[in-house]
Protein backbone atom coordinates (compact mmCIF):
# COMPACT_ATOMS: atom_id res chain seq x y z
CA UNK A 1 0.00 0.00 0.00
CA UNK A 2 2.76 2.41 -0.80
CA UNK A 3 2.23 5.38 -3.01
CA UNK A 4 -0.88 6.47 -5.02
CA UNK A 5 -1.03 9.91 -3.51
CA UNK A 6 -4.09 10.78 -5.52
CA UNK A 7 -6.18 8.80 -3.12
CA UNK A 8 -5.05 9.79 0.29
CA UNK A 9 -8.44 8.81 1.67
CA UNK A 10 -8.05 5.26 0.39
CA UNK A 11 -4.50 5.11 1.65
CA UNK A 12 -5.58 6.20 5.10
CA UNK A 13 -8.23 3.54 5.29
CA UNK A 14 -5.82 0.89 4.02
CA UNK A 15 -8.79 -0.77 2.38
CA UNK A 16 -8.08 0.02 -1.23
CA UNK A 17 -5.88 -1.81 -3.69
CA UNK A 18 -3.82 1.26 -3.63
CA UNK A 19 -4.12 5.25 -6.51
CA UNK A 20 -7.87 12.96 -13.76
CA UNK A 21 -11.31 13.91 -17.38
CA UNK A 22 -11.84 10.82 -19.22
CA UNK A 23 -11.04 9.68 -22.72
CA UNK A 24 -8.87 12.64 -23.63
CA UNK A 25 -5.50 11.61 -24.94
CA UNK A 26 -3.38 14.71 -25.19
CA UNK A 27 -2.35 17.42 -22.80
CA UNK A 28 -0.98 19.65 -25.53
CA UNK A 29 -4.14 21.71 -25.73
CA UNK A 30 -4.05 22.86 -22.12
CA UNK A 31 -4.36 26.62 -21.82
CA UNK A 32 -1.06 28.18 -20.77
CA UNK A 33 -1.49 31.40 -22.73
CA UNK A 34 -2.06 33.54 -19.64
CA UNK A 35 0.72 31.94 -17.58
CA UNK A 36 3.82 33.98 -16.94
CA UNK A 37 6.85 32.20 -18.35
CA UNK A 38 10.07 31.16 -16.65
CA UNK A 39 13.04 33.51 -16.98
CA UNK A 40 16.31 32.51 -18.59
CA UNK A 41 19.44 31.88 -16.56
CA UNK A 42 20.27 30.06 -13.35
CA UNK A 43 17.91 29.77 -10.41
CA UNK A 44 18.67 31.82 -7.31
CA UNK A 45 17.29 32.13 -3.80
CA UNK A 46 15.78 29.65 -1.36
CA UNK A 47 12.55 27.73 -1.92
CA UNK A 48 10.51 25.59 0.43
CA UNK A 49 9.13 22.35 -0.97
CA UNK A 50 6.67 19.91 0.59
CA UNK A 51 6.47 16.25 -0.38
CA UNK A 52 4.73 13.27 1.15
CA UNK A 53 5.65 9.77 2.22
CA UNK A 54 8.71 8.03 0.83
CA UNK A 55 9.02 10.72 -1.85
CA UNK A 56 9.40 13.39 0.84
CA UNK A 57 12.18 11.39 2.44
CA UNK A 58 14.09 10.80 -0.81
CA UNK A 59 13.60 14.14 -2.57
CA UNK A 60 16.34 16.06 -0.66
CA UNK A 61 19.03 13.90 -2.28
CA UNK A 62 17.66 14.66 -5.76
CA UNK A 63 17.36 18.37 -4.91
CA UNK A 64 21.13 18.49 -4.38
CA UNK A 65 21.57 17.96 -8.13
CA UNK A 66 19.42 21.03 -8.77
CA UNK A 67 21.49 23.04 -6.27
CA UNK A 68 24.72 21.86 -7.92
CA UNK A 69 23.47 23.08 -11.29
CA UNK A 70 22.25 26.35 -9.72
CA UNK A 71 24.87 27.39 -7.12
CA UNK A 72 22.81 30.39 -6.05
CA UNK A 73 19.74 28.30 -5.21
CA UNK A 74 18.74 26.33 -2.12
CA UNK A 75 15.88 23.81 -1.82
CA UNK A 76 14.50 23.08 1.65
CA UNK A 77 12.33 19.94 1.53
CA UNK A 78 9.80 19.18 4.25
CA UNK A 79 8.58 15.59 4.39
CA UNK A 80 4.91 15.33 5.40
CA UNK A 81 3.03 12.19 6.45
CA UNK A 82 0.21 11.35 4.04
CA UNK A 83 -2.38 11.24 6.80
CA UNK A 84 -1.71 14.87 7.70
CA UNK A 85 -1.06 16.26 4.22
CA UNK A 86 -4.47 17.38 2.99
CA UNK A 87 -5.34 19.29 6.17
CA UNK A 88 -1.88 20.83 6.26
CA UNK A 89 -2.29 22.09 2.72
CA UNK A 90 -5.77 23.53 3.22
CA UNK A 91 -4.72 25.23 6.45
CA UNK A 92 -1.69 26.72 4.73
CA UNK A 93 -3.80 27.94 1.81
CA UNK A 94 -6.29 29.61 4.15
CA UNK A 95 -3.50 31.24 6.13
CA UNK A 96 -1.53 32.29 3.05
CA UNK A 97 1.47 30.31 4.25
CA UNK A 98 1.93 27.73 1.52
CA UNK A 99 5.32 26.38 0.41
CA UNK A 100 6.79 27.62 -2.84
CA UNK A 101 6.27 24.26 -4.54
CA UNK A 102 4.89 20.89 -3.56
CA UNK A 103 3.97 17.36 -4.51
CA UNK A 104 0.17 17.22 -4.65
CA UNK A 105 -2.22 14.31 -4.94
CA UNK A 106 -3.94 14.48 -8.31
CA UNK A 107 -7.50 14.42 -6.95
CA UNK A 108 -6.68 17.51 -4.89
CA UNK A 109 -5.90 19.58 -7.99
CA UNK A 110 -9.48 20.72 -8.61
CA UNK A 111 -9.94 21.70 -4.99
CA UNK A 112 -6.70 23.68 -4.71
CA UNK A 113 -7.12 25.35 -8.10
CA UNK A 114 -10.68 26.23 -7.09
CA UNK A 115 -9.25 27.99 -4.03
CA UNK A 116 -7.08 30.06 -6.44
CA UNK A 117 -3.98 28.70 -4.72
CA UNK A 118 -2.06 27.31 -7.72
CA UNK A 119 0.07 29.11 -10.27
CA UNK A 120 -0.70 28.22 -13.93
CA UNK A 121 1.92 26.17 -15.76
CA UNK A 122 4.35 28.29 -17.81
CA UNK A 123 4.08 27.81 -21.57
CA UNK A 124 7.74 26.76 -21.86
CA UNK A 125 6.92 23.47 -20.11
CA UNK A 126 5.84 21.22 -22.96
CA UNK A 127 2.68 19.33 -21.97
CA UNK A 128 3.04 16.89 -24.87
CA UNK A 129 6.11 15.26 -23.30
CA UNK A 130 3.94 13.64 -20.60
CA UNK A 131 1.57 10.69 -20.87
CA UNK A 132 -1.76 12.19 -21.93
CA UNK A 133 -3.81 10.79 -19.05
CA UNK A 134 -1.24 12.00 -16.53
CA UNK A 135 -1.14 15.48 -18.06
CA UNK A 136 -4.91 15.72 -17.70
CA UNK A 137 -4.56 15.35 -13.93
CA UNK A 138 -2.93 18.80 -13.88
CA UNK A 139 -5.79 20.46 -15.77
CA UNK A 140 -8.77 22.23 -14.26
CA UNK A 141 -11.28 23.82 -16.63
CA UNK A 142 -8.82 23.38 -19.49
CA UNK A 143 -5.93 25.15 -17.77
CA UNK A 144 -2.84 23.35 -16.48
CA UNK A 145 -1.56 23.94 -12.95
CA UNK A 146 1.71 22.04 -12.51
CA UNK A 147 3.20 18.91 -14.07
CA UNK A 148 2.75 15.17 -13.64
CA UNK A 149 5.76 14.22 -11.52
CA UNK A 150 5.57 10.46 -11.61
CA UNK A 151 2.92 7.99 -12.70
CA UNK A 152 1.51 4.58 -12.08
CA UNK A 153 -1.21 2.47 -13.60
CA UNK A 154 -2.86 -0.86 -12.82
CA UNK A 155 -2.37 -4.18 -14.54
CA UNK A 156 -3.50 -7.78 -14.04
CA UNK A 157 -0.95 -9.69 -11.97
CA UNK A 158 -1.20 -13.44 -12.49
CA UNK A 159 0.73 -16.55 -11.52
CA UNK A 160 1.88 -17.78 -14.91
CA UNK A 161 3.05 -21.08 -13.44
CA UNK A 162 -0.38 -21.79 -11.96
CA UNK A 163 -2.11 -20.62 -15.13
CA UNK A 164 -0.08 -23.19 -17.07
CA UNK A 165 -1.17 -25.83 -14.55
CA UNK A 166 -4.75 -24.76 -15.25
CA UNK A 167 -4.17 -25.23 -18.97
CA UNK A 168 -3.84 -21.54 -19.84
CA UNK A 169 -0.70 -20.33 -21.60
CA UNK A 170 -1.68 -16.80 -22.62
CA UNK A 171 -2.58 -13.67 -20.66
CA UNK A 172 -6.30 -12.80 -20.62
CA UNK A 173 -7.21 -10.48 -23.46
CA UNK A 174 -10.97 -10.04 -22.97
CA UNK A 175 -13.42 -9.83 -20.08
CA UNK A 176 -14.42 -13.41 -20.84
CA UNK A 177 -10.78 -14.53 -20.82
CA UNK A 178 -10.16 -12.95 -17.42
CA UNK A 179 -13.12 -14.61 -15.78
CA UNK A 180 -12.34 -17.95 -17.38
CA UNK A 181 -8.74 -17.79 -16.18
CA UNK A 182 -9.78 -16.87 -12.64
CA UNK A 183 -12.26 -19.77 -12.57
CA UNK A 184 -9.66 -22.19 -13.95
CA UNK A 185 -7.23 -21.11 -11.25
CA UNK A 186 -9.76 -22.40 -8.72
CA UNK A 187 -10.90 -25.53 -10.52
CA UNK A 188 -7.58 -26.75 -11.89
CA UNK A 189 -4.72 -25.00 -10.05
CA UNK A 190 -5.89 -25.34 -6.44
CA UNK A 191 -6.50 -21.64 -5.72
CA UNK A 192 -9.00 -20.80 -2.99
CA UNK A 193 -10.07 -17.68 -4.87
CA UNK A 194 -9.52 -17.04 -8.56
CA UNK A 195 -8.77 -13.33 -8.25
CA UNK A 196 -8.47 -10.74 -5.51
CA UNK A 197 -10.89 -7.82 -5.97
CA UNK A 198 -11.98 -5.25 -3.43
CA UNK A 199 -15.60 -5.84 -2.40
CA UNK A 200 -16.59 -2.19 -2.15
CA UNK A 201 -15.57 0.20 0.57
CA UNK A 202 -13.08 3.04 0.56
CA UNK A 203 -11.11 3.29 -2.66
CA UNK A 204 -12.90 0.44 -4.44
CA UNK A 205 -13.77 2.77 -7.34
CA UNK A 206 -10.13 2.43 -8.40
CA UNK A 207 -10.61 -1.29 -8.98
CA UNK A 208 -13.91 -0.81 -10.80
CA UNK A 209 -13.12 2.07 -13.13
CA UNK A 210 -10.53 0.32 -15.33
CA UNK A 211 -13.35 -2.03 -16.38
CA UNK A 212 -15.72 0.89 -16.93
CA UNK A 213 -13.20 2.85 -18.98
CA UNK A 214 -12.39 -0.27 -21.00
CA UNK A 215 -16.12 -0.37 -21.75
CA UNK A 216 -16.09 3.21 -23.07
CA UNK A 217 -17.42 4.94 -19.94
CA UNK A 218 -17.10 8.68 -19.47
CA UNK A 219 -17.45 10.02 -15.93
CA UNK A 220 -18.56 13.44 -17.15
CA UNK A 221 -21.30 14.85 -19.35
CA UNK A 222 -22.53 18.24 -20.57
CA UNK A 223 -19.14 19.05 -22.05
CA UNK A 224 -17.25 17.86 -19.00
CA UNK A 225 -19.24 20.06 -16.62
CA UNK A 226 -21.22 17.43 -14.70
CA UNK A 227 -20.90 13.97 -13.18
CA UNK A 228 -22.05 10.97 -15.22
CA UNK A 229 -22.36 7.72 -13.24
CA UNK A 230 -25.75 6.35 -14.29
CA UNK A 231 -24.80 5.01 -17.73
CA UNK A 232 -25.06 1.67 -19.56
CA UNK A 233 -21.26 1.44 -19.81
CA UNK A 234 -20.71 1.78 -16.06
CA UNK A 235 -23.66 -0.50 -15.24
CA UNK A 236 -22.24 -3.24 -17.45
CA UNK A 237 -18.86 -2.88 -15.73
CA UNK A 238 -20.49 -3.03 -12.27
CA UNK A 239 -22.46 -6.15 -13.23
CA UNK A 240 -19.30 -7.81 -14.55
CA UNK A 241 -17.39 -6.86 -11.40
CA UNK A 242 -20.25 -8.11 -9.22
CA UNK A 243 -20.29 -11.47 -10.99
CA UNK A 244 -16.88 -12.42 -9.60
CA UNK A 245 -18.38 -12.26 -6.11
CA UNK A 246 -21.76 -13.83 -6.84
CA UNK A 247 -20.04 -16.69 -8.69
CA UNK A 248 -17.66 -17.32 -5.79
CA UNK A 249 -14.54 -16.44 -7.76
CA UNK A 250 -13.61 -13.46 -5.54
CA UNK A 251 -13.95 -13.23 -1.77
CA UNK A 252 -16.68 -10.82 -0.66
CA UNK A 253 -15.47 -11.23 2.95
CA UNK A 254 -11.83 -10.37 2.24
CA UNK A 255 -10.14 -8.56 5.17
CA UNK A 256 -10.13 -4.75 5.21
CA UNK A 257 -6.34 -4.85 5.43
CA UNK A 258 -5.21 -6.52 2.20
CA UNK A 259 -3.11 -9.70 2.33
CA UNK A 260 -2.28 -9.43 -1.35
CA UNK A 261 1.39 -10.43 -1.38
CA UNK A 262 1.28 -13.53 0.86
CA UNK A 263 -1.89 -14.78 -0.82
CA UNK A 264 -0.32 -14.33 -4.25
CA UNK A 265 2.94 -16.03 -3.30
CA UNK A 266 1.16 -18.96 -1.65
CA UNK A 267 -1.20 -19.36 -4.60
CA UNK A 268 -4.29 -18.83 -2.46
CA UNK A 269 -5.22 -15.84 -4.64
CA UNK A 270 -3.17 -16.12 -7.85
CA UNK A 271 -4.51 -13.00 -9.58
CA UNK A 272 -5.01 -9.38 -8.54
CA UNK A 273 -5.03 -5.89 -10.04
CA UNK A 274 -2.51 -3.33 -8.84
CA UNK A 275 0.39 -1.05 -9.65
CA UNK A 276 4.13 -1.44 -10.35
CA UNK A 277 5.20 -1.27 -6.70
CA UNK A 278 3.81 -4.77 -6.20
CA UNK A 279 6.56 -6.27 -8.36
CA UNK A 280 9.27 -5.73 -5.79
CA UNK A 281 6.89 -6.65 -2.96
CA UNK A 282 5.92 -10.07 -4.31
CA UNK A 283 9.42 -10.85 -5.53
CA UNK A 284 10.90 -10.07 -2.12
CA UNK A 285 8.36 -12.27 -0.36
CA UNK A 286 8.51 -15.01 -2.98
CA UNK A 287 12.29 -15.27 -2.86
CA UNK A 288 14.76 -16.38 -5.49
CA UNK A 289 13.18 -17.32 -8.79
CA UNK A 290 9.70 -16.03 -7.98
CA UNK A 291 9.91 -13.33 -10.65
CA UNK A 292 9.74 -16.13 -13.23
CA UNK A 293 6.54 -17.53 -11.70
CA UNK A 294 4.30 -14.56 -12.43
CA UNK A 295 3.60 -12.03 -15.13
CA UNK A 296 1.53 -8.88 -15.72
CA UNK A 297 -1.00 -8.15 -18.43
CA UNK A 298 -2.93 -5.08 -19.63
CA UNK A 299 -6.52 -4.64 -18.53
CA UNK A 300 -8.68 -6.96 -20.62
CA UNK A 301 -10.55 -5.51 -23.57
CA UNK A 302 -14.28 -4.92 -23.77
CA UNK A 303 -14.33 -2.07 -26.25
CA UNK A 304 -10.72 -1.12 -25.58
CA UNK A 305 -8.11 -1.59 -22.85
CA UNK A 306 -7.83 1.22 -20.34
CA UNK A 307 -6.74 1.53 -16.76
CA UNK A 308 -6.34 3.97 -13.93
CA UNK A 309 -3.55 6.54 -14.07
CA UNK A 310 -2.25 7.63 -10.70
CA UNK A 311 0.91 9.09 -9.29
CA UNK A 312 1.52 12.63 -8.19
CA UNK A 313 1.67 16.14 -9.62
CA UNK A 314 4.11 18.90 -8.74
CA UNK A 315 2.79 22.44 -8.39
CA UNK A 316 3.89 25.98 -7.61
CA UNK A 317 1.71 28.06 -5.30
CA UNK A 318 0.58 31.55 -6.26
CA UNK A 319 1.81 32.97 -2.98
CA UNK A 320 5.42 31.97 -3.70
CA UNK A 321 7.88 34.84 -3.46
CA UNK A 322 10.37 32.72 -5.39
CA UNK A 323 8.09 31.76 -8.25
CA UNK A 324 10.79 31.67 -10.90
CA UNK A 325 13.10 29.39 -8.93
CA UNK A 326 10.18 27.21 -7.90
CA UNK A 327 9.20 26.65 -11.52
CA UNK A 328 12.81 26.01 -12.51
CA UNK A 329 12.87 23.29 -9.86
CA UNK A 330 9.67 21.78 -11.28
CA UNK A 331 11.19 22.03 -14.77
CA UNK A 332 14.26 20.19 -13.44
CA UNK A 333 12.04 17.42 -12.07
CA UNK A 334 10.50 17.06 -15.53
CA UNK A 335 13.80 16.60 -17.35
CA UNK A 336 14.04 13.07 -18.84
CA UNK A 337 17.45 12.46 -17.26
CA UNK A 338 16.18 13.59 -13.86
CA UNK A 339 13.11 11.40 -14.27
CA UNK A 340 15.24 8.33 -15.03
CA UNK A 341 17.49 9.02 -12.06
CA UNK A 342 14.46 9.49 -9.79
CA UNK A 343 13.17 6.10 -10.90
CA UNK A 344 16.49 4.52 -9.91
CA UNK A 345 16.28 6.18 -6.50
CA UNK A 346 12.58 5.69 -5.80
CA UNK A 347 11.14 3.22 -8.38
CA UNK A 348 8.53 5.92 -9.21
CA UNK A 349 7.75 5.56 -12.90
CA UNK A 350 8.49 8.56 -15.16
CA UNK A 351 5.65 10.75 -16.37
CA UNK A 352 7.83 11.95 -19.26
CA UNK A 353 7.47 9.41 -22.05
CA UNK A 354 11.02 9.74 -23.41
CA UNK A 355 12.48 8.83 -20.00
CA UNK A 356 11.20 5.29 -20.58
CA UNK A 357 13.96 4.84 -23.14
CA UNK A 358 16.50 4.71 -20.31
CA UNK A 359 17.95 1.20 -20.07
CA UNK A 360 17.06 0.90 -16.38
CA UNK A 361 13.41 0.90 -17.45
CA UNK A 362 13.34 -0.31 -21.06
CA UNK A 363 15.17 -3.56 -20.23
CA UNK A 364 12.35 -4.77 -17.93
CA UNK A 365 9.53 -6.46 -19.89
CA UNK A 366 7.03 -6.15 -17.05
CA UNK A 367 7.70 -2.43 -16.74
CA UNK A 368 7.28 -2.10 -20.50
CA UNK A 369 3.74 -3.46 -20.12
CA UNK A 370 2.99 -0.74 -17.58
CA UNK A 371 4.36 1.78 -20.06
CA UNK A 372 2.05 0.53 -22.79
CA UNK A 373 -0.99 0.70 -20.48
CA UNK A 374 -0.12 4.27 -19.53
CA UNK A 375 -0.71 5.33 -23.12
CA UNK A 376 -4.45 4.71 -22.69
CA UNK A 377 -4.81 5.07 -18.91
CA UNK A 378 -7.36 7.55 -17.58
CA UNK A 379 -8.18 9.31 -14.35
CA UNK A 380 -11.29 10.86 -12.79
CA UNK A 381 -12.43 14.42 -13.48
CA UNK A 382 -10.70 17.24 -11.65
CA UNK A 383 -13.83 18.38 -9.81
CA UNK A 384 -13.25 19.86 -6.38
CA UNK A 385 -15.87 17.53 -4.91
CA UNK A 386 -14.51 14.30 -6.38
CA UNK A 387 -13.34 12.80 -3.06
CA UNK A 388 -16.75 13.45 -1.52
CA UNK A 389 -18.72 12.11 -4.46
CA UNK A 390 -16.65 8.99 -5.05
CA UNK A 391 -17.22 7.96 -1.43
CA UNK A 392 -20.85 7.49 -2.48
CA UNK A 393 -19.77 5.15 -5.29
CA UNK A 394 -17.60 3.15 -2.88
CA UNK A 395 -20.55 2.76 -0.51
CA UNK A 396 -22.99 1.68 -3.20
CA UNK A 397 -20.49 -0.73 -4.76
CA UNK A 398 -20.15 -2.48 -1.41
CA UNK A 399 -23.91 -3.00 -1.30
CA UNK A 400 -23.77 -4.48 -4.79
CA UNK A 401 -20.88 -6.88 -4.17
CA UNK A 402 -21.69 -7.95 -0.61
CA UNK A 403 -25.47 -7.75 -0.48
CA UNK A 404 -26.38 -8.34 -4.11
CA UNK A 405 -27.99 -4.92 -4.50
CA UNK A 406 -29.26 -3.93 -7.94
CA UNK A 407 -26.60 -2.12 -9.95
CA UNK A 408 -29.08 0.19 -11.70
CA UNK A 409 -30.50 1.41 -8.40
CA UNK A 410 -27.01 1.78 -6.95
CA UNK A 411 -25.76 3.93 -9.83
CA UNK A 412 -28.94 5.99 -9.85
CA UNK A 413 -28.35 6.71 -6.16
CA UNK A 414 -24.75 7.70 -6.83
CA UNK A 415 -25.83 10.03 -9.64
CA UNK A 416 -28.51 11.68 -7.49
CA UNK A 417 -26.03 12.25 -4.69
CA UNK A 418 -23.41 13.55 -7.11
CA UNK A 419 -25.90 16.06 -8.54
CA UNK A 420 -26.86 17.10 -5.03
CA UNK A 421 -23.25 17.63 -4.02
CA UNK A 422 -22.30 19.29 -7.31
CA UNK A 423 -18.91 19.74 -8.88
CA UNK A 424 -17.78 22.50 -6.58
CA UNK A 425 -17.80 25.15 -9.30
UniProtKB/TrEMBL annotation:
Keywords recorded for this protein, A-Z: Signal, Transport
Is Signal among this UniProt entry's keywords?
yes
User: Which residue spans traverse the membrane?
Assistant: none
State whether keyword Transport applies: yes
Classify the source by domain of life.
Answer: Bacteria
Provide the leader sequence positions: 1-21
Q: Which family does it belong to?
A: Belongs to the bacterial solute-binding protein 1 family.
Output this protein's name.
Answer: Sugar ABC transporter substrate-binding protein
Organism, as annotated:
Pedococcus ginsenosidimutans
Per the UniProt record, the lineage of the source organism begins with: Bacteria, Bacillati, Actinomycetota, Actinomycetes, Micrococcales
